[in-house]
Amino acid sequence: MTRRVIFDTDPGQDDAIAILLALASPEEITVEAIVTVGGNVPVSLTAKNARKICELAGRPDIPVYAGCAGPMAARPLVTAEHVHGATGLNGPDLPEPQMPLQPQHGVDFLIDQLRAEKPGAITLCVLGPMTNIAMALVKAPDIGPRIREIVLMGGAYFEVGNITPTAEFNVYVDPSAAAIVLASGIPIVMMPLDVTHRVLTTPARLDAIRAVPTKAAQAAAAMLGFSEKFDLEKYGSDGAPLHDPCVTAYLLRPELFQGRHINVEIETASPLTLGMTVADYWGVTDRKPNALFMREVDAQGFYDLLTQRLARLT
Ligand code: RIB
Ligand code: CA
Description:
single chain; Inosine-uridine Nucleoside N-ribohydrolase, Chain A; two-stranded antiparallel sheet
């Protein structure tokens, strides 16, 4: 039985690879739609990049929507061109998309689609700031119980922050949205920096992807070769962390990951620690667990899966 998913995403090279991995796995995952959000780059670019990725995978049939341009609370959009480049998808030279952008706003699409589906039919794969999901839940609270599960990349606890000393980027861009999603009662699987920083694209792993003679694999290698620069310089590690594809890999092979069902809250007020993920990993409070917080991963198993699946695309 395939898992029917909607991606909510801010591509972003790592978002792109997460989507390619899903599109290369039709026996396990059906990608019903892609909703984009302002994050790594403005939503006009994430909406264009999502269509470039669909066309790279030979799937111009997948409906792509533009969602929210910025966070719920009145604060400017924080972007990450310093990591992803001015286009958000620097690295490969992908053609301008020919497929159209859907006219409906992404938030309204999420509400309509979830109301039209049987409860539990759809899994949300959330790879960027959670603004669209939170806005949909605020506008239409009835859709929460209809969502099977949210698998998201975001947050950090032991690993601390990557955009501020205490906050991970997706949560930092829209902390209020992350707080709403975590308080929703929807089953959540969280891929924080604690686990994605154990998934490192070492030179050997990048070479293995480069050795795959498909357009998609070559583009993925070019994406990784671009976006790794910032993290390699910052962390000085043997490879750059690969964040968003952990979400898709979990749907394909959950046994690659280990974590703990704990309470996770978000700092939404303090100027010093805004967007901090307060994870009660040791159970020192009586706060109700609300997320499966992943911390361990079989990194080589992840890369073997990713490389093998990229070879399936053209
Ligand atoms: O902190 C990493 C996250 O921020 C990833 O989703 C990356 O694409 C950026 O959105
Ligand atoms: Ca992302």
